Structure formats: C-alpha cells, structure tokens
Amino acid sequence: MFSKSNLPHDPLPLPDRFDWTDDEARARVTGFFDLMARRHTVRDFSDRPVPQDIIETAVATAGRAPSGANHQPWFFAAVQDAGLKARIRAEAEAEEEKFYDGGAGDEWLKALEPIGTDASKPHLEIAPWLIVIFAQRWGEFDDGTRFKNYYVPESVGIATGFLIAALHQAGLACLTHTPNPMKFLNGALGRPGSEKPVMILAVGHPAEDATVPAVAKLKKPLGEILKVY
C-alpha cells in the first residue's frame, strides 16, 4: 500500500507460479473464453436472493486487480436494502428522464434504439443487489492530509472487469448502469467527496422470461480487434 513514511523497495520471490504446459494453458484459456462467451447483459432480473458471501467474494476478487502504484483507488458499495434501492432507482430515473428527454442528443439516442432502453429502470429495485463502484480520486492519511492516486480510471476499469467476470463465474447476471450525473450516489450511500461514482451494477439471477436485444449478440470478429505484430 502507501504510507506517509518512507517504505523501501523490498522484492520478494514470486509467491505463486503456474507451470502449465502449452496444452494445459490452451485448455484453460479456451474454457474461460467459453464461459465468458455465455455472459449476457440482462435487464430482466429475478428477485431470487443471492447470498451475501458470494457478493463479498466477487468484490474481493475485484480487489486483486492491478492498480497505479498499488493504491487500489476503488470502493464498492453493495446495496441489498429495499428502501435504499428504491431511493437509488428514483434518483437515477430522475436523471434518466432528462437524458431521454433530449439531454443525450439525437445521435446518442439513436445509437441506443437497438438496445431498447428508456428512462424506466425497474431492475434497480428487482435485482437483489446493486453494487455501486466508486473511484477514489485521492486518498487521505490518518491525519487528514491527502495523497494522490494514479491511473484511477484505468485501475477502476480493470477492477470492474475482474468483478463482472467473478459474478459470471458464480452464475449471476449483471447490468452496467451509468446515470449521468451520479453525484446523488454519494449522498445516498454516505461516501466522501474524494470518491466519484462511476457505475451501478445490478446483480442477480436473470428472470425466467429474460431477453437480450438481438444486436447484443453481434460481436466484432477477432480480426477486427487484434493485429499481431
């Protein structure tokens, strides 16, 4: 971590090493691809409960992500309380009404048409968990003085990817939701001004009648996202 006092560089022998053969590595990465290829963003959630320890383990996995200077500039607020979820939905929908009423601009709204979204966000109450992801723009020592965090968006983005993968590994579905602005989340969750909310993840099991937009199945082929040099 980071300390106000000087901490010397203290290299340790690599504590974990995976000495797999190429065939073993190929099988493992292919298996993980097959799992993640079955990941779908859903907006239709079941109210089936999800045990808290599953959410905690997924967030702990996110906390293993690399970060700038190892400052780990993230915070995850896991919300199960029905009243708090209702408050978050109400305040998020108030921002979404402005967005869909022209605030987003015609081009953005047209881009969303194949997805089928609108200002109504019932999943924010139906999903058993909301995980609100905050980026810590700066940190504070015990005496209240600040220190700078580095590569915050990149670090939080990587951790969020870890989190989504862990949730899918548990057989759960999630939906990324980014109302704009999101400052109301600081007030609702009592988070300090040093933290910027960047995303709400609705998390749970998909409803029996859950659907996905057909366009979501259209993924760029490998040749469009990779060039080997």
UniProtKB/TrEMBL annotation:
Q: Does the keyword Oxidoreductase apply?
A: yes
Ordered alphabetically, the record's keywords are: Flavoprotein, FMN, Oxidoreductase
Q: Does the keyword Oxidoreductase apply?
A: yes
Please name the GO terms that the record assigns under molecular function.
Answer: oxidoreductase activity
Instruction: Kindly give the CDD domains that the UniProt entry links to this protein.
Output: iodotyrosine_dehalogenase
| Pfam families, alphabetized | Nitroreductase (PF00881)
The domain of life for this entry's organism is Bacteria
The Nitroreductase domain extends over 37-205
Q: Which InterPro entries match?
A: Nitroreductase, Nitroreductase-like, Nitroreductase/BluB
**PANTHER family given for it?**
IODOTYROSINE DEIODINASE 1 (PTHR23026:SF90), NADPH NITROREDUCTASE (PTHR23026)
- What is the protein's given name? Nitroreductase family protein
High-level lineage: Bacteria, Pseudomonadati, Pseudomonadota, Alphaproteobacteria, Rhodobacterales
